[in-house]
Every structure is written in C-alpha cells, then in structure tokens.
Design brief:
alpha+beta
Length: 110
C-alpha cells in the first residue's frame, strides 16, 4: 500500500517525457572524464553529429586516457529505450570543437 513515506520507483520518467539521449563533453587536457552537457532528441543528435561522423564505442562510457592530452571530443549515449533506427544502445564518440558544438546546442528548438 502506498503512503507518503513510501518511495516509489517509476519505470518511466515521472514527468512522462520520453527518454532522450545524453550528450557529454570530454576534455582530456583538463582531465575532464565527461560532463553532461545536454539531453537531446535523436533527430537533434543526427543534426549535431552529422552523417557518419560518430564512432560506436560500445555499451560502456569511453575512458579518457589520463596520459594522452588529445583533442576534445563529445560522447552521445543511448539507452536501450532510446535506441532506434541507426542508433544502437551504447555510446558514440565524435571529434568536435566544443565551443562550436555548444553554440549549435543553443540554437535547438525547445
């Protein structure tokens, strides 16, 4: 029986909004292991990434090498519920100018 002291766990988001992919910014030179930057629709993900620019890296978030000070990159993650069409469940990496990508995020329709 439910009462005010019962913690209820929902299988879907409580606000009834469909789940959407997460976009992370990774900056190896700053030892940033991945900061959640946005939650976007699959259609917006395709627009931001471009055709064929993202590489599937599996179902585990990619590790940012601590000794390697390579370029900044972005990661987009899809859960099983979000995976559809060309997107599989897991994580995709793509190189990006994070400042430019951030500017593109600000233009997305809410």
């Amino acid at each position: 029986m439910w009462n005010r002291r019962t913690i209820k766990v929902f299988g879907q988001p409580a606000d009834d909004i469909p789940v959407m992919p997460n976009l992370y910014f990774c900056q190896p030179h700053a030892q940033n292991q991945g900061m959640l930057r946005a939650v976007i629709s699959p259609a917006d993900a395709k627009r931001l990434i471009g055709s064929g620019a993202a590489k599937y890296v599996g179902e585990t978030f990619p590790a940012v090498a601590t000794g390697d000070k390579s370029k900044d990159f972005a990661v987009i993650g899809f859960t099983r519920a979000e995976a559809q069409g060309e997107w599989r469940a897991g994580y995709y990496c793509f190189e990006a100018d994070l400042t430019e990508l951030n500017a593109q995020l600000l233009t997305l329709t809410r």
